[in-house]
Amino acid sequence: MTTVLIAGLVLAWAAIIALVVALLALARQVGVLHMRVAPAGALQTAGGPAVGAKAPTVPARDLDGNAVFVGGPAKGVPLRLLMFVSATCPLCKGLIPAARSFARAERVELMFVVDDSDDAQRAMIAAHGLEGYRFINGPEAGQAFAVGKLPYAVLLDAEGVILSKGLVNSREHLESLVVAHELGIATVQDYIAGLNKAAAA
After folding, report:
1. How far apart are CA 193 and CA 158, in angstroms?
2. Could you tell me the pTM of the whole model?
3. CA dist., res. 133 & res. 116, Å (int)
4. Which CATH number is 58-200 given?
């Protein structure tokens, strides 16, 4: 009986040691994959004003009918994020809480640009608690920035220069706009492409 217990104990310890070795090997492989997979970033589309260029100053109306300008210089506002969304876009609805959190964390002024009916916009504002944010209503800004798909974001500096832009559908994509600006590149994809070229040389 004692021999059977000792044999069972030895087998149990051997199994535990084998599992620990397998777990360490798996952790190593995950680390290798993490290093090889490029970070996802906002996808920049063709058309519209380029990164590094002055954004167009677009006359528009806010949700209350007041005349406003989208783009152009804004004194005392280091960074502005234009979020092009729609009340009928499921991705937009899911991204709005992340955009609010991102704007607070990065100290970015957040402005929503929408081309929906007033009732649809007001319902979206009420549903997401967006009463404190500016809403631009109308197609003019979207046309000026050549926005073809939603949700779309444009990061501007105080002088109205486009720092980065692109299609976004996650907090990571929003953060990539700031990262691209800090790295002095148009998109995170450009940075990865440069690393790949350097590695291949």
Report:
1. 29
2. 0.72
3. 16
4. 3.40.30.10
d(CA 83, CA 135): 10
pLDDT tens, 68-118? Answer: 999 988 888 899 999 999 999 999 989 999 999 999 999 999 999 999 998
What's the longest Cα–Cα distance across the chain?
90
Residues written for the chain: 201
Q: Where are the domains of the chain?
A: 1-37, 58-200
Q: What is the mean pLDDT of each run of 10 residues along the chain (201 residues)?
A: 78 90 84 51 73 92 89 89 93 92 93 92 91 91 92 94 91 88 69 63 63
